[in-house]
Amino acid sequence: MVRIDKNKALQMLKEASIYEVGTLADDIRRNLHPEGIVTFVVDRNINYTNICINRCKFCAFWRPKGHPEAYIISKEELAQKIQETIDKGGTQILLQGGVHPELGLEFYIDMLKFIKNNFKIHIHGFSPPEISFLSKKEGLNVKDILIQLKDAGLDSIPGGGAEILSDRVRKIQSPNKINSEEWLNVMKQAHLLGMKTSATMMFGSIDTEEDIVQHLEVIRALQDETGGFTAFIPWSFQPWNTELKRQNPELMPAGAVKYLKVLAVSRIYLDNFKNIQVSWVTQGIKVAQVGLRFGANDFGSTMLEENVVKAAGVSYRVSMDEIIQAIKSAGFKPAQRNTYYNILKLY
Amino acid sequence: MLSKIEKKILDGERLNKNEALFLFNSEDIHLIGELADQLSKKINNNFAYFIVNRHINPTNICINRCKFCAFSRSKGEAGSYEMTIEEIINHLKETEKLSGYVTEVHIVSGLHPDWSFEYYLEMISTIKKEFPKIGIKAFTAVEIDYFAKRSGLDIEQTLTKLKESGVDIMPGGGAEIFNPDVRKMICPEKISGERWLEIIKTAHKIGIKTNATMLYGHLENYEHRVDHLFKLRNLQDKTGGFVAFIPLSYQPENTDIKVPYPSGIDDLKTIAISRLILDNVPHIKAYWIMLGEKLAQIALLFGADCLEGTVIEEKIAHSAGARSRKGNTIDELVHMIRETGKIPAERDSFYNILRTW
């Protein structure tokens, strides 16, 4: 299939039926993954702190310093959570903040080394906002920060903090967070150092179809340059308990119809991405299964622990067995993968 | 085969059993969905309906302990309950206070070993007296059969008495799957599929409209589903008494039949094929309590034209692990419907439109 341009993507989002984009995306997925395998990773989200300088309006997880619920994880707790993950067959931890104003590079290096010295586990950690913050705090460029984190044990970087890579939207909903260019730059530097990352998109707040297409475009352009993205993961804004919802009470969550459409158009547009992931955490298992016929080929993670989406009023919880079963009953072959999307075990 | 089916549907021709079975075995969910949506638009313009209603389950004590049910209890068992008529009235008053008004009350119940038919008649007539404007949708064919047995009346007399007491319309529950072999495994004590159809036929005959349901995703296969749907279509050809068909997605938690949840893909396919087969039934309902709000929304583009209403206090599906919330506000329903491109329409029990957005 010929690569589609921004105008075509925009037209698809605005005018095409879900049957049309669904069929196209489904065909593309089948060509890329003809064996019908749908992968998942066994991991745990560990949020080392919920203190955050960004205080994004769409987020219900952050707390200010001094708040009774504010925390920084202790090494004991960290170790315990990792051990539990390994015991349950986990291969990676997703390690993310809060961007804590007082934690410098030393804290991060210490944390990474502590993990690597004690456990054999892949660290999928931080996100561009955290790395960019460290660069500013330490007065080092992003590349040097990344080199030090990598040396200390950071294996790959999740695609968080991308939200919508449209500065118009970012200025309103996450004014303290890094801009699009900076987000892309961190990812680019990581890719150039040989680190893989994923890319995400949070849509359905105050963004328009144009913003969504812009996001897809810049991600695709960077992937052309570096090839460093493993997967793309769109999900929808969950408004409950957020400042954005308080300020815009009429804001309703994007529905599943919009989700499927965005998922399908992402699959169609991002022709240089091998993997597209469904978000069962925000959509529920049934819609995630349907998503496998709208372009996705990965079921994401079993998320033995998840805090951020839960804080925004959504908490779909499932076990690894349920994920395996859900993939099977959707008509696919479940397979556990590692962070690089290599298959570890077929079920 | 698929293109032949597509042509038939576009030409307004009916599907036969082989074609219906072919669709169930087909992977082409996008085309099946689109065809179902086209037919749905033809039948219902572009409306997607909902109703402001309240579910009341007067008791969970039931002599039929169906294996797929996590709601029922035996008499005296922990967790069993019985509601008095006064409690039912108070529940409705409370709901009216909460939402301003209630358009319909949906009453289904366990088969209580001690309650008399008179108690049910009094329940209905008291509700009608207290709330003359609320539509009463009450009692499945299974309950009707039980009332007839307990009262010594025949089915027609039983239904007539209920109608006279104030029943406006009947829900479609208890149909499960008509196939006798599957029925023996999942609900051996329940009335047969034939009996269900006979009771519903009688209701239609004396002027009571009803819904119809099909419980799928347990031990049945696609042939059983097709057979079930064709039995409904045949009856509808004779009586025209079905208002809506509601495919019910099996909820396995806390039940004796341990199977996985039907996939979202199976749910959408079943809704779409139901729409395509039941070309003579005006409405197909996506029961969001079982599907979840999100999948129910997608179902509106796969042949469904109706979401269950702003249900307050749903108990039966939630006992079996339904993951949806127990109620939905009008704003949320309107938003969900709008996103599909359909026109939100609030309805009464008979699908008269009360307002649109």
SSE topology sketch:
The complex is a heterodimer of chains A (347) and B (357).
Chain A: H1 6-15, H2 18-32, E1 37-41, E2 43-47, H3 75-87, E3 92-96, H4 105-118, E4 122-125, H5 128-138, H6 142-152, E5 156-157, H7 167-173, H8 180-192, E6 196-203, H9 209-226, E7 229-236, H10 243-247, H11 256-269, E8 275-276, H12 280-283, H13 285-291, E9 298-301, H14 308-311, H15 320-329, E10 333-337, E11 343-346
Parallel strand pairs in A: 1-9, 1-10, 2-3, 3-4, 5-6, 6-7, 7-8
Antiparallel strand pairs in A: 10-11
Helix pairs in contact in A: 1-9, 2-11, 3-4, 4-6, 5-6, 5-8, 8-9
Chain B: H1 2-10, H2 17-25, H3 29-44, E1 47-50, E2 53-56, H4 85-99, E3 104-107, H5 117-130, E4 135-138, H6 141-151, H7 155-165, E5 169-170, H8 180-186, H9 193-205, E6 209-216, H10 222-239, E7 242-249, H11 264-277, E8 283-286, H12 288-291, H13 293-299, E9 306-307, H14 316-319, H15 330-339, E10 343-347, E11 353-356
**CATH H level, superfamily name of chain A:** Aldolase class I
What is the approximate shape of chain A? globular
- Helix and strand pattern of chain A: HHEEHEHEHHEHHEHEHHEHHEHHEE
**Fraction of residues in β-strands of chain B:** 5-15%
SS content category of chain A: alpha/beta
